[in-house]
Design brief:
The complex is a heterodimer.
Chain A (H helix, E strand, L loop, with lengths): L4 E3 L4 H8 L4 E4 L5 H6 L7 E4 L9 E3 L5 E4 L4 H5 L2 H6 L1 H8 L4 H6 L2 H6 L5 H4 L41 H7 L3 E6 L2 E6 H4 L18 E7 L1 H4 L5 E6 L10 E10 L2 E10 L6 E2 L1 H7 L6 H11 L11 H18 L25
Parallel strand pairs in A: 1-3, 2-3
Antiparallel strand pairs in A: 4-5, 5-8, 6-7, 6-8, 9-10, 10-11, 11-12
Helix pairs in contact in A: 5-9, 12-13, 13-14
Chain B lengths: L26 H5 L15 E7 L5 E5 L2 H6 L3 E5 L29 E2 L5 E7 L2 H10 L3 E4 L11 E2 L3 E2 L3 E2 L1 E4 L2 H7 L2 E9 L11 E7 L2 E5 L5 H12 L6 E4 L15 H13 L3 E4 L15 E9 L5 E12 L22 E9 L13 H18 L4 H7 L11 E2 L4 H12 L11 E2 L5 E12 L5 E8 L4 E4 L9 H13 L6 E4 L16 H25 L14 E4 L2 E4 L2 E7 H8 L3 E8 L3 H6 E2 L1 E12 L6 E11 L6 H20 L30 E6 L23 H13 L10 H4 L7
Parallel strand pairs in B: 1-15, 13-14, 17-18, 19-29, 23-24, 31-32
Antiparallel strand pairs in B: 1-5, 2-4, 2-6, 3-5, 7-18, 8-9, 10-18, 11-16, 12-13, 12-15, 16-17, 20-21, 21-30, 22-23, 22-28, 25-26, 26-27, 30-31
Helix pairs in contact in B: 7-8, 7-15, 10-11, 14-15
Classes of the chains: A alpha+beta, B alpha+beta.
Chain lengths: 352, 755
């Protein structure tokens, strides 16, 4: 690890001022950042430790009915907040399907949004990586890319965003509250993350020194609580990143879908809102046919970026399944294996 | 052997300690953090060493920025091939049977990614790490050779540790020609890494020409000689302390270059030096299970009997050393067949040298043998268990010898019963659970040889009635401290609480190798013999002394029990050890013992542990995710010293098998050859949620030939059988034979989806 300066600001303003210096990084729990520093993939000159800041650690319901989650709320604390989990079950399920209990106990909301890709060429400093070193090339292309993106990638970067939490937030239309030297701004999560294009090193709209102070879920998202699920397919039963995942929320009235929310994880450089699929669902009767059509719509633009064509087929199946699960209703209790293919399933959901 | 363990009446009369499910003696130390592992040692004036690893797989180092590294605050020395002090041994030499060619900065060649190309020593670990990073090496790179189809194969002389590369009997081609059905299949297994929880570490401290090493080691006394050879000092000048190992699995039996360099740095700088590998540094320099490609040909007659079995493995090794996964040899001892061929080819890749990893050869070989047998059973229209019973080997197929003991039929029966195997449909894709997930059942035969090495031990009876027993054994977490202690106490006729047990230090009598599933049998025999030797001496004192109630019992004999000697024909006449010693005016009396296989029984008998593993898997028919939902293993492995620990070993082995079947693999970049998942986030091993309800059945087995105590081993057999059972269950659920491990989601998606 390189020598770096450690700053522990007492206020958000101090933090922003400190992080405005070039080559600074905010430090949340460090579960991602410190690993990358130990491996030499990131070498910030200064760490601005956010974890001692006051007032960023609470979950509040605002007068307009929206819910505001402070950037320092721990992943586990959020998922286990009973009131929150009741109102936004898909978010809790997504959180609990990520990482391990120990990591969730430590990891912060802000850090989860800002975690970096697990593309092994990004981590491996001997590889060319446009994200780590702009203009150096992309060794994932033509390399070991079975878990890389099938949607939204560019010739410059084919990496996926690894977060589960963000997929659920994207489905529910969360808003990211940002603070910087020029003040506060709010950005819908769908616009917060950027596609790689020619600048894969630029992953979000955050400008130098800007920090996430909170994430807000709008009041209307809570109305979808009765029918929402997260499903994550992975290479082992737990403690693995998604090969393909999806968050779905539905409103079903009189036998027809009146509102649909769908976001995909593990398949794109950012948490992927599947708007065409959502549109395809509205007005349809919930059922295999509608879900299959939505799955097709969600991956209509997909193309393999390497040895990963299977993810397109897999992604479609994940979408069809998560929609069926959501249509069957949010379970009373969080399954012991959240978001797992092996969590209890309502009848008729599996293709026999 | 004069010091073979005397067993009254020729049968094992065993004391009260063995057979008890004692919990691990080291358990509390470990869960409270009081156990000191090698890297927990911090002698005064300690320096930290970090190796810089090559980032190319083949070529030459042309530049290292030594100045930048040296300029980093805290860096004390940078050792490269330019300035490395001389060593007493050529790095291509092999001082022991378990020595591999290794890298000690002998030149600027790079033979694999991750190979140490420099050593940076600093006042802190952080400074050494950053110093190593600052070296920013440059290379003259050559293309990496990797992949079975990318390089030529060659015919090796030996596989594993000195096993023949080709063994056979009968005429395989004739057997295949005569068969009514043939199964010809090709499977592949990837490189797998031991990933012991405790990374390799060493703390070296010199005192003149003596050196003390804190380092986890599976073969303490042998390793003193190996380390000594590097430094041109006598073996007795090397002391290794290895009280605890956080897992070894074969990777801590072999000395690697980094250890030598740390010791060298300590001598050069005249300060203690610690080197502790990072997780990623364990992918290359410290061995792995080599990748294999295996081709099997089975011939079956009308009755479902094998007419021929041909197992050809191509094993991958490094460009400069040979350790070839002896996978085909797994087919030598399991099924009866008139014609049998186990042969190996080899390929050289630009990788670190493979090495023995838990069940070397057997794990990969049995995975494929059991899968191929399953394919053959289906081809023959037979239930997989029935098919195996038809091909049951009454004598060892390879050698024709009788088995020392073989309770495999009982394993099959007990396992099948516990699992509920009866009624399994023959065809795949027939079973569903209540939610519609595909369900499959598979089985496999487990087999592992029951070797013994050489070990010595000492036992000392003390005036207060307690005893001390000593052997330089290794507890890697398998529970050796506990099981060996139990055996030692029995040898002395004492309750375990009266016996102090010393181990894990090279100054003690040679405890042999903790490997090959032979440690309990070997070191245990030595300890038991040492105890009985001490008791024999004590008896001599008593029976020859008129004042003893045992006087004159020389002919009828005495029995040692609970700290007393009893006349064999009259239990009313007895005397305590303490009384005998006190009367003789002795403060203690010592005995010595050895453990080794009796050559005569080795000549006459084939010796194996056996087992049968049954697996149930569930596969999501749409998503392809696989989960093992039940595992039952029934094992017959001679006398079980501690059923709790033995079961744990078997559970652990079976879970390892689950990882082999569904998760473990090193992913190499196809161009650079670098391992892209050299960390345990991305190199998957089973997590708790993967591990299903499991049953281990310890099938009673009395083996009078393996050793007088009747002990075999349980450390490795659990993997064998399990991999095949799971792969076969996946096929039974889905109809898909992936024929490539690990079996994953992408393999399952080829199954057409129901509408
Ligand atoms: C083994 C392993 C498995 C994992 N598995 C999963 C998984 O299955 N699913 C999943 O979703 N995640 C997974 N994770 C990732 C985990 O969720 C993240 O590491 C964690 O959420 C990061 O939070 P942190 O507080 O530790 O962030 P840090 O590591 O401290 O920071 C991460 C990044 O965010 C920046 N940052 C932190 N806070 C802020 C802020 N307030 N404003 C702006 N920038 C900020 C930092 O500068 C840094 O770039 C896994 C991680 C590990 C190590
Ligand atoms: S895919 Fe993106 S992150 Fe991965 S190597 Fe290419 S540029 Fe870097």
């Amino acid at each position: 690890m390189n020598l770096f300066e450690y700053v522990r600001p007492a206020s958000v303003a101090e933090a922003i001022a400190a992080a405005g210096e070039p080559n600074s990084a905010y430090l949340g729990a460090g579960t991602n950042l410190l690993d990358l520093m130990k491996g030499g993939a990131l070498t910030p000159a200064r760490l601005v430790d956010l974890t001692h800041l006051p007032d960023l650690g609470s979950i509040e319901t605002l007068p307009d009915g929206s819910t505001r989650i402070g950037a320092l709320v721990k992943n586990a604390a959020l998922a286990h907040d009973t009131d929150f989990a009741k109102r936004f079950p898909v978010v809790a399920e997504a959180l609990l399907s990520g990482a391990s209990a120990q990591l969730r106990n430590a990891a912060t909301v802000g850090g989860n949004l800002m975690q970096r890709t697990r593309c092994p060429y990004f981590t491996d400093t001997a590889s060319a990586c446009n994200k780590r070193q702009p203009g150096s090339g992309c060794d994932a292309i033509g390399g070991e890319n079975r878990s890389h993106a099938v949607l939204g990638w560019s010739e410059n970067c084919i990496a996926v965003h690894p977060s589960d939490f963000c997929v659920a937030l994207t489905a529910l239309g969360a808003i990211v509250e940002i603070e910087g030297t020029t003040g506060r701004r709010e950005v819908p999560i769908t616009e917060f993350f950027l596609l790689p294009g020619d600048t894969p090193e630029k992953e979000t709209v955050l400008e130098a020194g800007e920090m996430i102070v909170a994430v807000r879920l709008p009041a209307e998202a809570a109305k979808l609580a009765a029918n929402q699920r997260y499903l994550k397919v992975r290479e082992r039963t737990s403690y693995a990143f998604a090969l393909a995942s999806a968050a779905a929320a539905l409103t079903i009235e009189n036998g027809a879908i009146t509102e649909a929310r769908l976001a995909l994880g593990g398949v794109a450089p950012k948490p992927w809102r599947a708007s065409e699929a959502e549109a395809a669902l509205v007005g349809k009767a919930p059922g295999k046919e509608a879900f299959a059509a939505a799955a097709e719509a969600a991956f209509a633009e997909a193309k393999p970026s390497g040895d990963n064509a299977y993810k397109i087929e897999l992604g479609k199946r994940v979408v069809a399944r998560v929609l069926a699960m959501a249509a069957a209703g949010t379970p009373e209790r969080m399954p012991a294996l959240p978001a797992s293919a092996f969590a209890p399933l309502p009848e008729g959901v599996v293709n026999v | 052997m004069s010091d073979a363990i005397p067993m009254p009446g020729g049968r094992n009369r065993f004391g009260s300690n063995s057979g008890q499910p004692l919990t691990r003696r080291d358990g509390v130390l470990k869960v409270t953090g009081a156990a000191t592992f090698a890297a927990d040692n911090h002698p005064d004036r300690l320096l930290h060493a970090v190796t810089a690893g090559a980032t190319v797989s083949r070529g030459r180092v042309t530049f290292l920025d030594v100045e930048a590294a040296k300029a980093h605050p805290g860096v004390v020395a940078v050792i490269t091939p330019e300035n490395r002090p001389p060593l007493a041994m050529d790095p291509d030499e092999k001082p022991t049977r378990f020595s591999f060619r290794t890298e000690v900065l002998q030149d600027d060649t790079v033979r694999y990614a991750g190979q140490p190309i420099a050593l940076v020593v600093a006042e802190t670990l952080e400074a050494a790490t950053e110093g190593a990073r600052l070296l920013s090496p440059r290379y003259e790179e050559e293309p990496a050779r990797h992949g079975f189809d990318a390089v030529d194969t060659y015919e090796p002389e030996a596989v594993g540790v000195g096993a023949p590369a080709k063994v056979g009997k009968g005429d395989v081609e004739a057997g295949l020609a005569a068969a009514t059905r043939r199964v010809e299949v090709r499977y592949e297994t990837p490189g797998q890494y031991h990933n012991a929880m405790e990374p390799h570490a060493i703390v070296a401290e010199w005192d003149g020409d003596r050196v003390t090493l804190d380092t986890p080691n599976q073969a303490l006394v042998m390793s003193t000689g190996a380390f000594a050879a590097w430094f041109g000092i006598p073996a007795e000048n090397v002391t290794i302390r290895s009280p605890f190992l956080g897992g070894g699995f074969g990777s801590k039996a072999i000395i690697f270059g980094g250890q030598v360099l740390a010791i060298l740095a300590a001598r050069m700088l005249q300060r203690p030096v610690k080197l502790a590998l990072r997780r990623d540094q364990m992918y290359g320099p410290v061995g792995h299970r080599g990748a294999t490609r295996q081709e099997m040909r089975l011939g079956i007659d009308d009755e479902g009997r094998l007419t021929a079995l041909d197992h050809l493995t191509t094993s991958a090794t490094s460009s400069f050393e040979e350790f070839l996964e002896p996978a085909s040899n797994a087919s030598l001892n399991t099924y009866a067949t008139p014609a049998l061929l186990a042969r190996h080819k080899a390929v050289r890749w630009d990788i670190g040298t493979p090495g023995p990893m838990r069940a070397p050869g057997e794990a990969s070989g049995s995975a494929v043998l059991e899968s191929a047998m399953d394919e053959a059973a289906f081809a023959a229209g037979l239930d997989p268990l029935e098919f195996r019973l038809r091909n049951y080997a009454e004598t060892d197929p390879a050698s024709g010898k009788r088995f020392s003991a073989k309770a495999l039929r009982e394993c099959y029966a007990d396992g099948a019963k516990r699992f509920g195997w009866a009624g399994r449909p023959l065809a795949p894709g027939q079973m569903r659970d209540e939610t519609g997930r595909l369900v499959g059942w598979g089985m496999g035969t487990a087999l592992f040889h029951a070797p013994m090495f050489q070990a010595e031990a000492k036992a000392t009876l003390r005036a207060d009635g307690t005893a001390l027993v000593e052997t330089a054994g290794a507890d890697m977490g398998q529970g050796a401290w506990t099981a060996l202690h139990q055996i030692a106490a029995d040898g002395l006729g004492l309750a375990i609480s009266m016996v102090e047990f010393h181990s894990g230090h090279s100054g003690l009598p040679d405890g042999g190798i903790a490997g090959g599933s032979g440690h309990t049998a070997t070191a245990g025999s030595a300890l038991h013999a040492a105890g009985t030797d001490a008791i024999a001496k004590l008896s001599e004192l008593a029976v020859g002394d008129e004042r003893s109630p045992l006087f004159g019992a020389g002919n009828v004999g005495v029995e040692a029990r609970d700290g007393r000697l009893y006349r064999a024909d009259d239990p009313e006449r007895s005397e305590s050890y303490a009384e005998i010693l006190a009367r003789a005016g002795l403060s203690e009396i010592g005995g010595a013992g050895q453990g080794a296989r009796d050559p005569a029984s080795a000549e006459e008998r084939a010796m194996f542990s056996h087992g049968a593993v049954f697996a149930e898997v569930k596969v999501d028919p749409d998503l392809g995710q696989i989960k093992v939902s039940r595992l039952v293993g029934a094992f017959a492995a001679g006398r079980i010293i501690n059923p709790r620990l033995a079961s744990s070993q078997l559970y652990g082995g079976m879970i390892w098998g689950l990882g082999f079947a569904l998760e473990e693999q090193a992913v190499h970049d196809r161009r650079s050859g670098r391992i892209m998942n050299a960390n345990i986030a991305e190199y998957h091993v089973p997590v708790n949620a993967d591990v299903p309800e499991m049953d281990v059945i310890l099938v009673p087995e009395d083996d009078p030939y393996v050793n007088p105590l009747g002990i075999k081993g349980v450390g490795e057999i659990g993997i064998t059988g399990t991999v095949g059972a799971i792969a076969n269950a996946v096929w039974h659920a889905t109809g898909i034979r992936a024929r490539r491990f690990p079996i994953g989601i992408a393999d399952m998606l080829t199954r057409p989806q129901a509408a």
